[in-house]
Amino acid sequence: MNKTIKVALAGAGAFGIKHLDAIRNIDGVEVVSLISRDLAKTRAVADKHGIPHVTTDLNEALALLEVDAVILCTPTQMHAAQAIACMKAGKHVQVEIPLCDIYRDGQEVVRVQQETGLVAMCGHTRRFNPSHQWVHKRIEAGEFNIQQMDVQTYFFRRQNMNALGEPRSWTDHLLWHHAAHTVDLFAYQCGSPVVKANAIQGPIHPELGIAMDMSIQLKAANGAICTLSLSFNNDGPLGTFFRYIGDSGTYIARYDDLFNGKEEKIDVSQVDVSMNGIELQDREFFAAIREGREPNASVAQVLPCYRVLHDLEQQLEAM
């Protein structure tokens, strides 16, 4: 495909805007439709970004013949069904993490992708952050092997608010969203599937109906282990912090920044064409469409992560 890729983006919230800002830096791509539930707010975002078509109905956007691909930044509970709808309408699709919150729904997304042959990708951004890419390249070169990953995912979300501090129409989830980043990244970086997983969780929030604290242990087939601590109760610092402990060094990744075990900063500015993980993930999506290939973080590649999450959920419910 050499022509401009025309994109519909669903979800004009915090993450949708991050994708719009990223796409502005990518040649040969144009967002032609913006879909979100509040028409007035959606129109305001569309006007700012020069997007001609605005709607509250995804099906209306899917009916546009000019649309080649869709990026879904919608509530978690909609991801699988909407991804399937996009592919059945003949559109390539990138769905923000998580792919699903019910494992069998993720399986159906993969089945439809295989049936249609379209590009279907999930936004597992950690695969694309320059910090994690730098570590991955060392692993691929045989210069570093993970012995242990220690990961902290900490937020302060005792009310149902999004990243912009606005009320959410849906409830976020430590296991099905935030743990998905690390479970997938651990297996990806190790180049080895997760073969053992354990989880415990804290009290259920009386209003949100979710556990606000969780601890997960993972073991890969090659022997590497991972400890993941997650919280919506943590009053700073906020974010996800990764410590890679390996056979030839220790590395600490804080989003797109990387440090060694002595807290000396490592220059990762030349790892890729951008320091923005969202932009790099979008570039991969559009490159896969142009080249007719499977993208990194395809729905098939990330599905094993959701099997682990499913098993952990079953484990937690049995406690």
What characteristics describe this protein?
319 residues; globular; six-stranded parallel sheet; alpha/beta
Explain this structure.
By secondary structure, the chain is an alpha/beta fold. Helices cover 35% and strands 25% of the residues. It is built from 9 helices and 14 strands. The chain has helices at 14-23, 39-49, 58-62, 79-88, 103-116, 130-140, 174-190, 277-291, 299-318; strands spanning 5-10, 29-35, 53-55, 69-72, 92-96, 120-123, 146-154, 194-201, 213-220, 225-231, 239-246, 250-254, 257-260, 265-266. Strands 8-9-10-7-11-12-13-14 form an 8-stranded mixed β-sheet, covered by helices on one side. The longest helix is centred in the C-terminal third of the chain and has 20 residues, at 299-318.
- Give the biggest beta sheet: 8 strands, mixed
Q: What is the 3D shape?
A: globular
Average pLDDT: 95
Residue windows where pLDDT falls under 50 for at least 5 positions: none
Radius of gyration: 19 Å
| Oligomerization category of the chains in this entry | single chain
Strand order of the largest sheet: 8-9-10-7-11-12-13-14
Helices and strands, in order, run as EHEHEHEHEHEHEHEEEEEEEHH
Give the class from helix and strand content and strand pairing.
Answer: alpha/beta
Question: Which percent range describes the beta-strand content?
Answer: 25-35%
> Counting H and I runs of at least 4 residues, what is the number of helices?
9
C-alpha termini separation? 51 Å
Percent range for helical residues?
Answer: 25-40%
Count of distinct strands: 14
